[in-house]
Amino acid sequence: MAKGGNKRNFNKKGAKKKYIDPFTKKDWYDIRAPAMFDIRTLGKTPISRTQGTKIASEEMKGRVFEVNLADMMKPGDNEGFRKIKLVCEEVQGLNVLTNFYGMDFTRDKKMSLIKKWQTLIEANVDVKTSDGYTLRMFCLAFTTRADNQIKKTAYAQTAQVRAIRKKMIEIMSAEASKCELRELVQKLLPEAIGKEITKATHTIYPLRDVFIRKVKVLKSPKFDLAKLMELHGEGKGSKSGGAKVARAEEGVVEAAAGSGGRY
Fold first, then answer.
1. Whole-angstrom Cα distance, residue 102 to residue 137?
2. Cβ–Cβ contacts within 10 Å for residue 22, how many?
3. Element (DSSP H or E) covering residue 80
4. How far apart are CA 169 and CA 171, in angstroms?
5. 195, 249 Cβ separation under 8 angstroms
């Protein structure tokens, strides 16, 4: 159709909208882990600059970061199968101060534990720490053959599974309720609670690969900046917990100090 034969205007109105990279409007913040881990600076996270009623520091609060534990520990620690969740609770300058928010295993680690001719036993319980955090803890264990056993399989009876699950719940509740969240994390990383369960259930049925495979924070107490600064080793009376995590055996002994000395 000829240009003049149609009443519609074929000329485009206005120029093409200029493309602006959205990252030019963002700032980068450093993610800081609590003092219980060896490596404190984990990376950077972007967020849009303060504009109008949207304040960048307020928008950042509540953001959850998932980090592999191997990236938070010294080289040589075989902790690549654990994933740690950290939640932003405070922003100071360009530093994001985080707190523990959960733990999980990688899928390949969970699948590598499952084998034939054994029983898988799982248990979970909701516990409240002494500083007011409500957690849900999941425990995982597998039966194994006794030292002098000739039989190829190691299947536990239903009554034995129930007894082991009851023992798991008792130990998880006792260990978590008598300590603060920071101390509980220091028990989880060297797997002190798993070793306690293995010893306590040995008379029922021998177990192997007993792990606290997952921890979820269901409810947190009212935010306290002084406690968060103490957790990051910057407040009054702060304690640096990195050394305890690095030395697993010392962490196990300390965890057992109030449990009757069963180690």
1. 10
2. 9
3. none
4. 6
5. no
Cα–Cα distance, 67 to 83 (Å, whole number): 6
Q: DSSP labels for the chain?
A: --GGGSSS--SPPSPPPPP--GGGGEEEEEEE--TTSS--EEEEEEEEPPBTTB-HHHHHTT-EEEEEGGGGS-TT---TTEEEEEEEEEEETTEEEEEEEEEEE-HHHHHHH--SSB-EEEEEEEEE-TTS-EEEEEEEEEE---TT---S-BPPPHHHHHHHHHHHHHHHHHHHHTS-HHHHHHHHTTTHHHHHHHHHTTTT--EEEEEEEEEEEEE-----HHHHHHHTT-STT----HHHHH-HHHHHHHHTTTTTS--
| Degrees, nearest 5: CA angle 66-173-183 | 55
- 2: region left, alpha or beta (phi > 0 left; psi from -120 to 50 alpha): beta
Taking CA atoms, 45 is separated from 9, 29, 64, in Å, by: 48, 5, 11
For residue 191, the one-letter residue type is E
One pLDDT digit (tens) per residue for the chain, 263 residues? 555 566 665 566 656 778 888 899 999 999 999 988 989 999 999 999 998 899 999 999 999 999 999 999 887 777 789 999 999 999 999 999 999 999 999 999 999 999 999 999 999 999 999 999 999 999 999 999 998 889 999 999 999 999 999 999 999 999 999 999 999 999 988 889 999 999 999 999 999 999 999 999 999 999 999 999 998 887 655 554 444 444 444 444 344 444 444 43
